[in-house]
Amino acid sequence: MSARVAVIGAGPFGLAGLKNMREAGFDAIGFERRGYVGGIWKHSQDGRISVVPNTVFNGSRSRSAFTDFPFSETVSDYPTCDQLYDYLQDYADAFKLRDHIRLNTSVNTIRRVGGRWELELQTVGNEDVYTEIFDKILVATGSFQTPKYPTVPGIELFDPKHVTHSLHYTPSEDYKDKKVLLIGFHATAKVYLSRRNNLLLLRKFDDEGRPFDQTQTMVFCSVIAIFEAVCPRFFYWLLDNFMASQTKKQFPSLKKYNNFLPAPSMATTTPVAADVLVPYIDNGFVEPIGSIRRVTGPRSVELNDGRVLDDVDRIIYCTGYHFDQPSLPTEYQPAPVHGVPPKLYRNIFSLHDDEGVRDSLAFLGQGAAFFSGFSMFEVQSMAIAQVWKGNSKLPSYKERLAWYKANLDDFNAKHGRMTTNATHYSVLLPLGETLDFLNKTAGLGLENCGWFSAKGWSLWWNDRELYKICRTGLFSPAIFRLFETGKRKTWNGARSQVFKDNEFAKQRAAERRTRIAEGKKVQ
């Protein structure tokens, strides 16, 4: 009998996790408290995190698809939230996942009973609680769960009805003709963009008309991996200086704000795509200001530079989220201490004292390398499936703990070198080391594209066109399904999709260059 796996969440991570668990032969069932699949990618006003109607994905369509389910050619280079929501519906339908998902079902808590997992479940709108037993649990609700509310002295002086978190923000007439502190670009009269620190700002497209993440070829990733492993501090010094030069070049109008520089290192903080933001700064709709010292009255705020804003109508916290998992007891929380890396091996597998827990509890969305799109997390689910199936083995518990300690030490060392009190993303992982682990554990076969492997030389000799496009072309998600390894399932359409992705990306870039030459708007 196949092991029963509970997949908590039916957003992008949950759908990919459910699909890959079932693909590996597990009796997997998904649980989703919302009445639909797709997670945050459908705008809602139910008090849970969701996109706003004009949200656009930060990764390009060519890099952000699942590994065996490409986007339609009608999808924008940077998919809109509606396009992503439709894509996730199509994904669920294509792989017949809906039959294995219980919507409107909350997982209230989990507990160990007789060496297995008991889930306490409740149908939304029904007071009755029931339980079910599973062998393994994959928590795939992502990392955006509990909103952060940083302490602002005097905030109690401001009308509480006019203070909210971006979690609860919905564009409405309530913001029209109002002056808003922090963020909110929809039909407002003025926005004060308060920030503790500067940021690296980038455009979504490069000078050749390509989405910025398309420059991350396999060769590019390999070079980054080597430098990051051998001389990380020098590597990030070079990278930070290059990115700062790009910010200055791409947004010369921000010179009066010192181009939002110096910015925190990319070793700790990710850059921001600012194509939409900067025009609003240029026309005065958004005014960048310094950090807040305190709230001094019902509409007034004092900044740390001494300036007082006495005309603020609304305050919106856009300060991110803690990585808590509401349905999990404290002992199973991946990140029980806020602001530090989760206590997980490779930010995926539990490091609980109980061996039974370690062998049956895993997470998606708690760790990420600089690799855009959903495929990185989908590949994590493949790795989990192969470990649970017995096709791949993790190191000893002692070695896993040593990895966690080294990861924590590296995090603390980077944090100690920070020159500002900026957000330090605790889920960031080294690209090369992470890809290497996922390649071996999930069985991706990336060694077939390697410089120094026999399989790489074999592919170069037998299929030079494929070898070349895999190494120097667009890093298509389909590459992760290309090679047979005896572990994760391959996709028969992977080879043709790699070429299609590259050709389509070239076509879109050429069209964009033409529009630029004609003086037309590019988006």
Automatic annotation (TrEMBL):
Listed GO MF terms: flavin adenine dinucleotide binding; N,N-dimethylaniline monooxygenase activity; NADP binding
Keywords (A to Z) from UniProt: FAD, Flavoprotein, Monooxygenase, NADP, Oxidoreductase
Transmembrane residue ranges: none
PANTHER family: DIMETHYLANILINE MONOOXYGENASE
Similarity field: Belongs to the FMO family.
SUPFAM superfamilies for this protein: FAD/NAD(P)-binding domain
Entry keyword annotation includes Flavoprotein: yes
Protein name according to UniProt: Dimethylaniline monooxygenase [N-oxide-forming] 2
Keyword Cell inner membrane: no
